[in-house]
Amino acid sequence: MRSRYYEIIHPTFPFLPHSKASLQARLASTTGKIRDALLLALKCTVRSNPSSTLRPSQPLDTRLAAEWTCSSQFESPSTRSVASNLMYLQTLIFLILEGDNHGPATIRGQMGPPKAVWLGAAIGMAYTLKLHRNDGRGRLTDGDPDSDEKLGQRAWWALVVLDRWHAISTSSPLMIPDSCVVLSSDDQVLLGLAPFHLSSE
């Protein structure tokens, strides 16, 4: 399932570690509830993707991923490690993408909360983690490609794109204001060419 993520989602939304070994290490080091929610949300998102040839997940899987993610909201972000908070944010992004794959069915609430619920929660978490500030940009071009700073920035830009897609498709106001969306040449190195151009649209 993780291999399919790297084939069909990561080239456009590279919010997980680039390295499968790095992803495995992060999964092993976080709390069970968040880890399990991320893995189930990843499975549901990959299976519901229009490019996937896998059998779609059962609605119960999506509901369970949503329930596990919601229960994690009651843990204070200040009591979790940065890595665990990033994994929680990544789980929310998977649920946004999974909801997007279902289109109007999600809006009617048939597959779980509307996509806007997950988007709002993810953007709120990103603000809590100060990802919109880009304080670490000077460090983004050096060292580990899957550091907390780089994963945080890649998750931020995925949210920027998803927020704009949601606003256009639902005639809703943006949740992330233009003042928080300033790309630099460092971001092109961080994101890769295709995601960078997608973010700059």
Keywords:
201 residues, mainly alpha, 62% helix, 0% strand
General description of the model:
The chain has helices spanning 2-8, 20-29, 32-48, 59-72, 82-102, 104-107, 115-128, 148-170, 185-191, 193-200. The two termini are 30 Å apart. The chain has 10 helices and no strands. It is globular, with a radius of gyration of 16 Å. It is mostly helical. The chain has one domain (2-200).
Whole-Å distance between the termini?
30 Å
Mean pLDDT: 83
List segments where confidence is low: pLDDT < 50 over at least 5 consecutive residues: 105-110
Q: What is the total domain count?
A: 1
Tell me the radius of gyration: 16 Å
Category from helices, strands and their pairing: mainly alpha
Total E-strand runs: 0
Helix content: 55-70%
How would you describe the shape?
globular
User: How many helices?
Assistant: 10
- Tell me about the largest β-sheet: none
- What is the string of helix and strand elements? HHHHHHHHHH
Strand content: under 5%
